Structures are given as C-alpha cells and as structure tokens.
Amino acid sequence: MRLTRRAALGATTLLAAPPFARAQSRAIELSVQYTAPVLFRELHEAVAAEFTRRNPEIRISFRAPEEGYEELLQRHLRDSITRSLPDVGFHGLSRVRTLQERNIPADLTPFLREDPETPELGYSPQMLSLGQMAGGQFSIGFALSTPILYVNTDLVRRAGGNPGALPADWDGWIRLAQAINGLNAPDTYGMFFNWPITGNWSWQALVFSHGGTMLNADETRVAFGEEPGRRSIRLLRRFVDEARMPDIRPQVMFADFFAGRLGVMMESTAQLARVTREIGGRFGMVTARFPIPGPNPRLPAGGAAAVMLTRDPARQQAAWRYIKFATGPVGATMMVRQTGYMPATSIPAQHEDMLAGFYRENPNHLTTIRQQDVLTGWYAFPGQNALRITDVINDHLQSVVARRAEPDPTLDRMVADVQALLPRRG
What is the pLDDT of residues 217-275, one digit of tens each? Predict the structure, then answer.
C-alpha cells in the first residue's frame, strides 16, 4: 500500500479521524502513565510534545511513572477500584491480560476498524496479535523487544575468540565464557544471563526456545516441568557451574559490562541504546541472536504496549489519536532511535527519513528484527494469582543460581507451587 505523506508524518488531524470523532472541539487533557523512567522518560516526553504540536487541542499530562510493569499493574488495579485510572497506560505485554480479565481496558477493535488511517499505520497482523485476547484488541505494541546477547568484542579477542564467528549455541557460549574467565583479569568474568527480568521473561525465553510452554493448552496444568523446562533449568545451572556466572543483581551486571569487566550478557534489546551510550566507544560491542535449541523454538516478545483505560467516549477519541500516534510511524521512529526496542509498525524501516538509514548505520539494532520469525507472546498467567506466580518462579530460580538447591528437585517444587496458584476450573 502506498504511504501518503500525511500518514508518513503521523498527522492526526480532525479530518482524518472517524466521523463520530470530528465533533470534538473542546480542548482535552489526557493523563498518561508509563514505567521505567530511566529508559522511557525522555522518549515519552518527546512523543507527547510532538503529538501536541500537531494536535494542539489535546494536551498530555504524565502521572509519575512506576519503576516496573508489576508496580504499574498494581497501581492500576487499585485505581480501577477508586475510579481514578489515567486515560492511557503503557503496560508490559504480559500484564494486559490481568487488566482484561477484570474488564478494565477498552477494546481497541472498533477504533482500528473505523479509522480510515489504520491501513497506513503499518501494523502487521503478527504484531497486533500480541495484544489480542478474549476476542478483542486490548493493547498495541509501543516498544517491543526480544532477548539478545551483548558481547564485548575486546574480551572475546583477548580470549582467543573471533567476534566475526560467534557461537550459535549455548555450549559454544559457555566455552567462550570459560576462555574469558581464563584470562584471569581482575574482576573480569565471562557471562551473565539476566534471569530475574520482570514477569519471568527470561525463564520463558529458555523454555520457549527449547520448544516448551508455561501451561498446557487449556491452562489447567503447569507444562514447564516437562523436558523443555528441565533442559532449561539445567542450562541455567550450567551458567553458574561451568561458566562461573556470579549471583549478582542486574544493576551490578550493567555496571560490570559498562566498565568492560563482563564478556557476554543476556539482556533485552530494550537496553541497546543505553548500553551503547554508556560504553562510549571504550571497547567494541556487538549483539548476537539468542540461541534456539528447539524443536519448534520460539522467543517471547517483551516490552510495553499502549492500553486505553478511559471509558468516556470523548476522551476515548483523544486517547485513540494519541495511541495511534505513539505506536505509529512517527512515534515508532522516535522510540527506536532512543532505545533498542523494535516497533509494532513496519513503515519506518521502509523509509530513509525514518529508520532505513538508521538500521544500516546501527546493525546491532537488526539482531532483534531478525528474530521475528520465532516471536510469540509474552505469556501471562491466568487468574488472581498472576503476580504471585511470577514471584514464586523467581524465588525458585534464585535458589538454583545461588546453589542452594539442585535444578530438577527445584523444578518439581516450582511446578507444584505454581499449580496450586492456578485458577480452579470446572
């Protein structure tokens, strides 16, 4: 489909709005809330400023951001009770289900269907599917990520490796980490797999990449205790035992990588722009694909998605205009340039004045794009105990990383604990 200049510039004028939206004439101030200000504050403020410049009849006010997706979910669950929700929220993809199960967000299907600009926004069916559940479209991806590997090429060379021929499987990465450990450089170590990432995202990446699932098809039984999960938890322990991965927090991992003391770290693409800025050219860095042992491997899409929370019709029209601007070609271009995420729209990568040239000049950003062929949803556990389940899983994984417990017995306990927290069906 031909991209018009108006769509490419992300114009969201009243004439472009659906007929039922054109009656809006009074100024509206939308309240918006997001997470992770260290990553997103400047971006959200820039997107809002550009949107307001093009849509002066709509003002954006930000509520104080929450630190993480779990905190924002808890905040909005409380706000729904007191009827004090913001108009738009940017939630973790795995947390939208909990909101939808409580009938909190609006279904965006009518807005997508009735807006004549929708075909020109560039949303792919695959990307839209990440926000679909219960027969509706309850979110649209704003900043999407996949798990990748960040590699200090200087340490790789010193350890006898070839940055141009990096490993393709975990066995190879463990051997490379061992070689970096063998340098015996002060405070330097081979690898860190960031297993505590929010929402059990890293655990899902391990299990999904081995061909497993979190629950069975009808969500009545825990499935990660099967062979893919056993291979995954044993691999996590191999990182500790064989690659000498330390038991540290992610903040320490980042500090060590920025300082050139860490050879390889597994982390979200979300951090790519930040990592590049922090390194500042002090050493070489490339990104590599997350190994996918299979069979039928997949990787969970992470990141934030826009959710409409207001139920007021006039505010919904304004909220939709903001959501489609933030997630559309212009907002997506701004987002990619300031982070390491990928967009939900394919249009920016096709245009030189958006991201086509940027991707050529910044090949590290292409690693996540090349993993779209195995992308699947970031799984959300059902029911009232969804947040508690993620905490239970993390507690068990911590015991394996800290060597307080062995992988297989820990997995058995983790399965039993999660099973007890699932909703009782029938």
Answer: 999 999 999 999 999 999 999 999 999 999 999 999 999 999 999 999 999 999 999 99
The region, left, alpha or beta by phi > 0 then psi within -120 to 50, assigned to residue 262 is beta
Band (5; pLDDT cuts 50, 70, 90): very low
For 136-193, what is each residue's pLDDT tens digit?
A: 999 999 999 999 999 999 999 999 999 999 999 999 999 999 999 999 999 999 999 9
| Structure token digits, residue 339 | 């982070």
Q: How far apart are CA 36 and CA 40, in angstroms?
A: 6
Query: Residue 30: beta bridge partners?
Result: 60
CA 389 to chain centroid, in Å, comes to 19
Task: State how far the alpha carbon of 23 is from the alpha carbons of 26, 76, 118, 314, 322, in Å.
Answer: 9, 30, 20, 9, 17
Q: How far apart are alpha carbons 423 and 426 in whole angstroms?
A: 10
Report the alpha-carbon distance of residue 17 to residue 53 in Å, rounded: 17
Cα three-residue angle 119-122-123, rounded to 5 degrees: 95
What separation in angstroms does the CA of 291 have from each of 78, 232, 286?
A: 39, 12, 15
Cα–Cα distance for residue pair 60/51, rounded to 1 Å: 9
CA distances from 141 to 3, 93, 286, 302 (A): 21, 8, 26, 10
